[in-house]
Amino acid sequence: MSNNGNGSRKLCIVASKGSLDMAYPPLILANAARMSGIEVDIFFTFWGLDMITLSKYKKLKMSAVGNPNLSMAPYMPQVYIPTWLGAIPGMKHLATWMMKREIEKLDFPPVDEFIEMVSDAGANLYGCKMSMDMMGLTADDLFPEASVLGAMEFLELSEGAQVLFV
Q: What is this structure's pTM?
């Protein structure tokens, strides 16, 4: 973990993916870091913005296409779903349903509650200005906990921090 120059530890996470299964890694890492007293900034860019966009966060899905390690775990962990099978209508919904069930079993909060939780714990949330412009989003489209930040500003902010791209 990097030092931010004043003796404290700092972690900057770039969240670039907006599928249900990719929403949890940055939130879990941010939560763990905050629980350890580490300063955290999360920069949501491209599809990662879906996690903090008010009209999209409830619609996050898990794709069965292009995921070579997608298995029927925990039901039949030895059975892997071939990538081509993911293209069958309904597979995305089945994979999403399975993922949501497992998330509930682990007692993880839904994405919106998790974002509120890490924000309340002191993590800073930023929507990428360029990605927002490209997608026609404004600050009003994001969770109230999030601010808008340009890439150059994020680079300034992340100086001396450990940066993770997830």
A: 0.83
CA distances from 19 to 15, 44, 78, 109, 124 (A): 11, 13, 24, 16, 21
Query: DSSP letters along 18-60, please?
Result: -SHHHHHHHHHHHHHHHHTT-EEEEEE-GGGGGGTBTTTGGG-
Q: Is the pLDDT of residue 1 over 50?
A: no
Pairing type for strands 71-72 and 76-80 reads antiparallel
CB 128 within 8 A of CB 46: yes
For tokens 């450990």, name the residue: 162
β partners of residue 9: 3
Furthest CA-CA distance within the chain: 53
Tokens at 12, concatenated: 């900057």
User: Model confidence over 96-120: pLDDT tens digits?
Assistant: 787 888 888 888 899 999 999 999 9
Let me know: does 102 contact 74? Beta carbons within 8 Å: yes
The percent of the chain in helix, strand and coil, each rounded to the nearest 5, is: 45, 20, 35
Is there a contact between 145 and 116 (Cβ–Cβ < 8 Å)?
yes
